[in-house]
Structures are given as C-alpha cells and as structure tokens.
Amino acid sequence: MIPPSTATIYLYGSYFLTGEHRDYKPGSGEFSRINPINNFFPTGGGLGAWEVGLRYASVDLTDEDIEGGELSDITFGVNWHLNPNVRMMFNYVYADLEDRAEGGDDDADIFQARFQIGF
C-alpha cells in the first residue's frame, strides 16, 4: 500500500525582548532551557525573560477515503520565563480549515494559556 501524499509546513520564529537567546544542542537535536539574565523576583529582582513568537503551520488532512481538508493556522505567542524552571505561556491562534467534505470550511479564534514548571 502506498501512503497518501500529505503536505506539512511548519515555520516558527521568536525574539527575546530582554536579550536572552536559545542555545541549540546539535548532538541531541534539541534546544536548551532558557536562563534569564535576571530572574524574576517580586521585591527588587529582575523581569525574567520575555519572548515573543510567531508560528505558521499547515497540514493536509485528507487520507484515502477521508476528505479532512487542509488546516492552516497562525499563532502569536508571548512567553514569560520567570527563571530557568518556571514559564508562563500565552497564545492567540487563528485556525482555518478548508475543503472539508462534510461541514464545509471552518475557522476558529483560540486563546491559550499555560503555566509550566520544569525539573
């Protein structure tokens, strides 16, 4: 059986407003944890690290007899790294689904928030 052709696109970029950077580890193919220049502390500490990001993703959801259509989305996000172990994330996503067999075209405005603690 020949697998169906699917087109997937994923583009992402971010910028640290507070001057940090994201180190890449080529040996393991992953990015390192963010270490804020000044960790957030409510009484006289730093601001932590502030990052803004933009992402575009697109995927073809049609597979053999399933006409799932094509989904693309644009995400704008703000990440607040309070210290190397705590991060708050806020995202706005605009998702657009086209050419679906049942239900026609759909779009959605999505607001997401997440609080993450890493050990």
Summarize the structure.
The protein has 119 residues and is mainly beta. Helices cover 0% and strands 54% of the residues. The protein is elongated, with a radius of gyration of 19 Å.
Describe the structure.
The chain is mostly beta strands and 119 residues long. The protein has one domain. Helix content is 0%, strand content 54%. It has no helices and seven strands. The protein has a five-stranded antiparallel sheet, with no helix packed on it. A two-stranded antiparallel ribbon has the order 2-3. The radius of gyration is 19 Å and the shape is elongated.
- Order of SSEs, N→C? EEEEEEE
**Helix share bin:** under 10%
Poorly predicted runs: none
Number of domains: 1
Number of helices: 0
Radius of gyration: 19 Å
Q: How is the main sheet built? A: 5 strands, antiparallel
- The structure class reads mainly beta
Distance between the termini: 44 Å
**Overall mean pLDDT score?**
88
Shape: elongated
Keywords for this structure?
single chain; 119 residues; 0% helix; two-stranded antiparallel sheet; mainly beta; 7 strands
How would you summarize the topology of this molecule?
Layout: E1 8-16, E2 24-25, E3 30-31, E4 49-60, E5 70-83, E6 86-98, E7 106-117
Antiparallel strand pairs: 1-4, 2-3, 4-5, 5-6, 6-7
